[in-house]
Amino acid sequence: MRPADLAREHGLSTQAVRNYEQDGFLPPAERTPSGYRIYTETHAAALRAFLALVPAYGHATAGGIMHAANAGDVDRALTLVDRGHEQLLRDRETLNTVRAAIGSLTTGRPPEPAATAWSIGELAHRLGVTAATVRAWERAGVLMPSRNRATGHRVFQAADIRDAELAHLLRRGGYPLAHIATVVEQVRTAGGTDSLVGALATWQERLTGRGLAMLDAAARLGAYLASRS
What we know:
Elements lengths: L2 H8 L3 H9 L7 E2 L5 E2 L2 H17 L1 H12 L3 H33 L13 H8 L3 H9 L6 E2 L6 E2 L2 H15 L4 H13 L4 H35 L1
Antiparallel strand pairs: 1-2, 3-4
């Protein structure tokens, strides 16, 4: 098979196919005596797998999965897949948490108190982000933690954790910090939640789309791994 044969199936340029091989997303192609690449059905399966993995897991993770698969490290590839499913599940759970928070706020019930006050490091660890990211959210007005009078350290209570979970969810959905700050403020004041409901509905659609993309990607990746055996 020629680069054009692989490219035509997906509406790509032949240079894009060559770039994918150069980046390690496809296994190395053999060459003719004159230097032309020779692709096989295994390369076609690899390209199908990579292009299906991108909408499911993102470009970076998709690339990591293909690098591992091409190196024969199937366990590493599957670990990356598992982490993607874990993140999707966490996003679904966060959506449910936020919906419950909206219900509590609109009915006038205060948020459930946290068992303990969390530090910035503990909150960052829970979300899988850096402390610098949490501080950036605070500067943008997304978070408004109190301070320990004795140490001056930030203290995150139940409402702060809820706001941070919401911010993390919307940030992954592509919303700018200025918009997220407005939405979180609406949650705090329990008024004007229309934009929040709309944002959550949009994100729910994206989660469903990502879940379906993962199913397709699993089939494509499985077919590629089978072609290598």
